């Protein structure tokens, strides 16, 4: 009787152990992830950092097989591939999808508005994260913003741009709908080129100048070899956000604990990326100067005019699309709210100080139409 009872208990224990093993096996997920960035563009380091951190934190439940941009499909196809579930995840810059919805544009960058700390604050404490979910959610995706870079380099080319008057008639490579509208009002014309095409376009004179990313990224892309002049600051992208698109079904298949680990990895990568980018930008700037690049700084008067035009363009876009209006309304509300503390903490404050912002009242009027 004792032997039978022992056998029975042993059998039950074995069954429980087997069930636990089965549960573990079913919980283990393997994802394929790619990105919009090829190996030769340093922005891929942000995507890699997150994927490696996830594999460290959640390796027992999820393994991410990361592939560089262009190795599985062209970078332009990663949105559709993630939306349909052909792959589980892809790193991106939201502005690439502004043709689907203009709301993607401010989720990626702003013209003469947010800096990197503003995006950090807004995403984490002022409702920004929820707006990423709302916009990407319409396309069957969850979005984890995990990368922030501060303002971009500015325009590089074979002729100097010393003031906004020099933009007249210039053909400039520039990303973003709002950015293009501001440039057009300043007398220039927007040329759309993939990042990998910029070097040759400058070298051959196809464009008069071009922007791409931060000084560290730009230097590693070889731009000092073809561009003698550098116009600063990078008003066209006063900061940028990067992140990972995750197929909704793939996300839902994860446990809440694993989902939380992915979010923790995104938070850690976001903080790392801002510091990493600023270090890279500093070192890149030093190298451009050492190579003889001439830097031309726009005047305060020119920047004020850019801000005036930017404000008009933001209101114009808000009146054209409700979701675009909703995102900008949230951003400008943050700036006004944060100003209560930010402005009295100068010069030790952590955000952009400006008295000239797009009109919330005009945006609200568009939202209520």
Automatic annotation (TrEMBL):
Source taxon at top rank: Bacteria
Keyword Signal: yes
Signal peptide from the UniProt entry: 1-27
Gene3D superfamilies documented for this protein: Bacterial extracellular solute-binding protein, family 7 (3.40.190.170), Periplasmic binding protein-like II (3.40.190.10)
InterPro entries in the record: DctP_fam, SBP_TakP-like, TRAP_DctP_sf
Pfam family, one: DctP
Keywords, ordered alphabetically: Signal
The protein's name: TRAP transporter substrate-binding protein DctP
Organism of this sequence: Halomonas pelophila
């Amino acid at each position: 009787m004792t032997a039978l009872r022992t056998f029975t208990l042993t059998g039950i224990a074995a069954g429980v152990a087997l069930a636990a093993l089965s549960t573990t096996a079913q919980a283990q997920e393997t994802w394929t992830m790619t990105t919009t960035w090829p190996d030769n563009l340093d922005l891929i380091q942000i995507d890699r950092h997150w994927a490696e951190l996830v594999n460290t934190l959640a390796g027992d439940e999820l393994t991410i097989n990361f592939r560089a941009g262009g190795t599985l499909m062209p970078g332009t196809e990663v949105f559709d591939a993630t939306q349909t579930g052909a792959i589980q995840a892809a790193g991106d810059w939201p502005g690439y999808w502004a043709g689907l919805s203009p709301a993607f544009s401010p989720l990626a960058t702003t013209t003469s508005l947010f800096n990197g700390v503003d995006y950090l604050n807004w995403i984490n404490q002022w409702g920004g994260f929820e707006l990423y979910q709302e916009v990407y959610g319409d396309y069957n995706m969850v979005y984890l913003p995990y990368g922030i870079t501060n303002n971009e380099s500015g325009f590089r080319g074979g002729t100097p741009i010393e003031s906004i008057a020099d933009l007249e008639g210039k053909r400039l490579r520039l990303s973003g709908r709002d950015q293009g509208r501001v440039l057009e009002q300043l007398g220039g014309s927007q040329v759309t080129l993939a990042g990998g095409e910029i070097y040759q376009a400058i070298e051959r004179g196809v464009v008069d100048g071009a922007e791409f990313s931060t000084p560290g990224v730009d230097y590693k892309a070889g731009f000092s070899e073809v561009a003698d002049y550098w116009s600063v600051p990078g008003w066209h992208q006063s900061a940028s956000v990067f992140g990972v698109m995750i197929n909704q079904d793939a996300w839902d298949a994860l446990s809440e604990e694993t989902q939380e680990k992915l979010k923790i990895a995104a938070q850690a990568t976001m903080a790392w990326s801002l510091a990493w980018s600023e270090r890279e930008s500093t070192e890149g700037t030093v190298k451009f100067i050492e190579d003889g690049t001439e830097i031309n700084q726009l005047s305060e008067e020119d920047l004020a005019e850019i801000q005036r035009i930017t404000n008009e363009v933001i209101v114009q876009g808000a009146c054209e699309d409700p979701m675009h209006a909703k995102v900008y309304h949230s951003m400008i509300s943050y700036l006004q709210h944060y100003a209560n503390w930010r402005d009295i903490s100068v010069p030790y404050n952590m955000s952009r100080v400006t008295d000239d912002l797009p009109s919330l009242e005009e945006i609200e009027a568009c939202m209520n139409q």
